[in-house]
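seq as requested:
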Amino acid sequence: MGSKNYLALIALVSGFASTAYADGIIYFSGGSAETASATVNGDTPMSIGYLALRDEGAFFGFDIGAEGTVLDSTYSQNNKPNQAYSFNVILGTNISEQGKHRFDVGAIAGIRETTKDCPSSYLGYACYANTKPDTQYTANFGALITYSYDKLTIGLRATGESTQLLLGVKF
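struct tokens:
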């Protein structure tokens, strides 16, 4: 799925959710990188996500994260550690809401890339005959805690692969 497809999906879901629910939050998050090695990617983990806040206090959402390591054997590489992508759904509830203050907690569940493998191309493609690589996934779990004041949201996003500080805008 190309980056244009991801952006279209985010726009579609956020458009639907903003009309069907009270508020929405778009957030960006980032964390500190692990020390790179022959089997560990050292790029900075980050994610982008959307939360649809419901009037009765519950919320749902999704995010796409760049976190953890995928062992990549495309482009004639041999298990090179690159940054993995994760695709997650978020379900949570409101803990406290008073006027412009809101405190929420949620659970993250999704999938994360672990390996990408394919026969090598001799013409510069990722894979032989420009085929798609065989990508393996594993489960990705975590938690999300946010505090909102008026239109600003801050929080923490933690999974088995990364811990990230979150900054968002409520609309």
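The chain is about 10% helix and 60% strand.
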